[in-house]
């Protein structure tokens, strides 16, 4: 049986045969330097992983690096107390579709 839905921090749905990942955040919600540092570390680790000759090991390490990069990105988002707070503004909270 193929599992098409699971939970991590948010529910995830995986239709059979489809691959996609979507994250939304407000512009300016992440400090540029933190994003740059995170991306630089990821790209450095990724460049080292690509040198591994064993295909299976290389693919596993790259997969885990991507998961860690996404997790670390979420940790930064979860830890911020500053930045734009558009969604706290009453005129935005009360917008009807």
Briefly summarize what is shown.
With 97 residues, the protein is mainly α.
Describe the SSE topology.
Layout: E1 5-7, E2 11-13, H1 32-49, H2 55-79, H3 90-93
Antiparallel strand pairs: 1-2
Helix pairs in contact: 1-2
Number of strands: 2
Mean pLDDT: 81
Order of helices and strands: EEHHH
Strand order of the largest sheet: 1-2
Number of helices: 3
Instruction: Name the helicity range.
Output: 40-55%
Q: How much of the polypeptide forms β-strand, as a percent range?
A: 5-15%
The rounded distance between the terminal residues' Cα atoms is 38 Å
Global outline: flat
Radius of gyration: 18 Å
Quaternary state of this entry equals single chain
Structural class: mainly alpha
| Spans of at least 5 consecutive residues with low confidence | none
Q: Describe the main β-sheet briefly.
A: 2 strands, antiparallel
How would you sum up this structure, described in words?
The longest helix is centred in the last third of the chain and has 25 residues, at 55-79. The mean pLDDT is 81. A hairpin with a 3-residue loop joins β1 (5-7) and β2 (11-13). The radius of gyration is 18 Å and the shape is flat. It has a two-stranded antiparallel ribbon with strand order 1-2. It has helices spanning 32-49, 55-79, 90-93; strands spanning 5-7, 11-13. With 97 residues, it is mostly helical. α1 (32-49) packs antiparallel against α2 (55-79). It has a domain at 28-93.
């Amino acid at each position: 049986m193929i599992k098409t839905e699971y939970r991590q921090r948010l529910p995830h749905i995986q239709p059979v045969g489809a691959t996609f990942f979507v994250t939304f955040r407000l512009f300016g919600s992440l400090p540029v330097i933190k994003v740059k540092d995170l991306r630089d570390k990821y790209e450095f680790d990724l460049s080292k992983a690509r040198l591994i000759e064993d295909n299976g090991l290389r693919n596993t390490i790259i997969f885990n690096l991507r998961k860690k990069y996404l997790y670390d990105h979420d940790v930064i988002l979860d830890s911020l107390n500053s930045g734009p707070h558009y969604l706290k503004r009453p005129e935005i909270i009360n917008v009807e579709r």
